[in-house]
Amino acid sequence: MKVTCRPAVLGQALQVVSRAISSRTTLPILNNILIETTSEGLALTATNLEIGIRKLVPAEVSSEGSTTAPARLLTDFVGTLPDDNLEMTLDSATQSLSLRCARFDTHIKCIEAEEFPPGPKPDEGDRLEVGLDDLVRPPSRGAQAGGGGIDRP
User: Fold this and answer.
1) C-alpha–C-alpha distance, residues 74 and 17, integer Å
2) CA nearest neighbour of 59 among 40, 81, 84
3) Within 13 A of 12's CA, how many CA atoms are on the CB side?
4) By CB distance 3.0 to 4.6 Å, which of 20, 52, 81, 117 could disulfide with 7?
């Protein structure tokens, strides 16, 4: 796997998917983020076996592959990088993910993608799109449910 992307965009996506990771888990693989190449770029997936979050990151894919990397370590490292091109290369024999950006260079030990638990894959008919305004606006019917009597403050 060889991918080039922007650290700011990758960092934001890592923070989003990291919300699905539980701090207490008996399976070490659940502390990792699944990193896969797709035709659209890079797909990041995290799960705690109850919920899963998947986010696509625009990236230039030179060679395909997949792995899982420790979420906290990867998120913290990418957050410190300057806004220059980040090159991620996976050595599939050793499962070592190399990250190079400007003067920064590191290697992160990963776990094979096959170890990551499969999540549900929704069909096209199972999707629901909700606008941000609908989530932020308070429900109109809930306001009438509160009691305003003098015996209850």
Assistant:
1) 12
2) 40
3) 8
4) 81
Question: pLDDT tens, 40-69?
Answer: 999 999 999 888 999 999 999 999 999 999
Alpha-carbon distance of 49 to 131, in angstroms, equals 26
How many whole angstroms separate alpha carbon 143 and alpha carbon 47?
A: 35
d(CA 85, CA 87): 6
* Sheet of strand 2-5, all strands in order from the earlier edge strand to the far edge: 60-63, 2-5, 86-91, 96-101, 104-109
Architecture of domain 2-120 in this structure: Roll (3.10)
What is the distance between the alpha carbons of residues 22 and 17, in angstroms, rounded to a whole number?
11
Give the pLDDT score at 116: 96
Please say whether the beta carbons of 32 and 22 come within 8 A. Answer: no
Compute the distance between CA of residue 122 and CA of residue 17 in angstroms, rounded to an integer: 17
How many angstroms separate the CA atoms of 31 and 18, rounded? 9
